[in-house]
Amino acid sequence: MPRLFIFGLGYSALALARLVQREGWTVAGTCRTRLGAEALTAENIDPHLFDGTAPIEPSALKGTTHLLASIPADPDDPALRHHTADIAANGALEWIGYLSTTSVYGVSDGSIVDEDTLCDPSSARGQRRLGAERAWADLPLPGHIFRLSGIYGPGRSVFDTIGEGKAQRIVKPGQAFNRIHVADIATTVRASIGSPAPGRIYNVADNLPAPSADLVTYACKLLKIDPPPEIPFEQAVLSPMAREFWADNKRIDNSRIKKELGVRLTYPTYLEGLDAISTSK
C-alpha cells in the first residue's frame, strides 16, 4: 500500500493528503504543535512534531513510498537540513515532490513566464525558495518541483478578507496575478505521482491572470454588497511581505501541466473558484 509522508502538513498539502486517503493510501507527516497533531490524528494521519530545529525520529520515514515537502525555506529547507541522508537512503521511494512558488522567477514587467524562464528572484524569500528547489533536485531521486501561484480555497479566500474588514481594492495599472485553487493543487500533484518525471518543474496556476481588485469586486457582487473604494497602490496599507508580492508582475503559462500531466483544472479562473466557495457557505 502506498505511504505518503509530508513535511509540513499545511493548507495545500492537507488537500493532497485527503485526496490520496480516499484512494486507500496511508499518510503521515509533520506539524508544529500538539494541537495540530491532534487535528491530524482525527483525520487518520500519523503526526510527527517538527519545527525545523531538531530532526524527527528516523523511523517516521520507514515504509514511505512517496514524499512531499511544503515547508518554506528559512534559510534553507528544514527537511533537508535534518534528513537529507535519510531521504537519500530510502530505496522504497518512488516519487518526491516539493511545493515551491512562482516568486522564484522575479519577473516584474508583466511578461508571460513558463518553466524554462530564467529565475532571478527579487526577494529574499524567492531566493531561499530557489535554493531549496535546487537542493531537492540534487537528491539521488530528484524532486518534482511545483511552482504555485497565489493559493486560495475554502477558508482562505477574498471572502475571508472581506469578512475581516481588511479587503482593499488596490489599483496598480498593468499589474496582474495568477491564482490556483487548493483543490487543483492536489489534483496536479496527484497527476505527477501517476506520471513520474524526476526533476521536472511545473507551474501550477489558473488560466486567467487578473488584477486583485477584480477579485474583490466580483466577490462583493456575489455577496451582494458594495465593494470598497479603489485605492492607488502607493496609498495601500501593505505588510512588507505583501509589498514583496506586489513587486512581481507576471503572467504564468500553465500549459505543461495540461500537456504532460493531463490536468484539467476544476477551477480554471477565479470566477469558477469564487462561485464554488460562495455556494458552499
Could you walk me through the main structural features you see in this protein, from its secondary elements to its overall organization?
This protein is of the alpha/beta class. It has a domain at 3-152 and 180-206 and 251-266: Rossmann fold. 36% of the residues lie in helices and 18% in strands. It has 10 helices and 13 strands. The protein has helices spanning 11-21, 34-42, 78-88, 124-137, 158-163, 182-194, 212-223, 240-247, 255-261, 270-280, and strands spanning 3-7, 26-31, 46-49, 66-69, 95-101, 112-113, 144-148, 150-152, 169-171, 179-181, 201-204, 230-232, 251-252. The strands form 4 sheets. A 7-stranded parallel beta sheet has the order 3-2-1-4-5-7-11, with helices on both faces. A two-stranded parallel sheet has the order 6-13. Strands 8-10 form a two-stranded parallel ribbon. Helix 1 links the parallel strand 1 and strand 2 (26-31). Helix 1 (11-21) crosses helix 6 and helix 7 (212-223) packs parallel to helix 10 (270-280). The longest helix is centred in the middle third of the chain and has 14 residues, at 124-137. The protein starts with a strand and ends with a helix. The mean pLDDT is 96.
**H/E order of the elements?**
EHEHEEHEEHEEHEEHEHEHEHH
Number of helices: 10
Return residue spans where pLDDT drops below 50 for at least 5 consecutive residues.
none
| CATH architecture field of the domain at 3-152 and 180-206 and 251-266 | 3-Layer(aba) Sandwich
Supply the CATH superfamily name of the domain at 3-152 and 180-206 and 251-266.
Answer: NAD(P)-binding Rossmann-like Domain
**Spatial gap, N to C terminus:** 36 Å
Cross-sheet strand order for the largest sheet: 3-2-1-4-5-7-11
Report helical residue fraction: 25-40%
Query: Structural class of the secondary structure composition?
Result: alpha/beta
Shape: globular
Residue-averaged pLDDT: 96
Count the beta strands: 13
* Percentage beta strand: 15-25%
CATH class wording of the domain at 3-152 and 180-206 and 251-266? Alpha Beta
Report on the biggest sheet: 7 strands, parallel
Radius of gyration: 19 Å
| CATH topology annotation of the domain at 3-152 and 180-206 and 251-266 | Rossmann fold
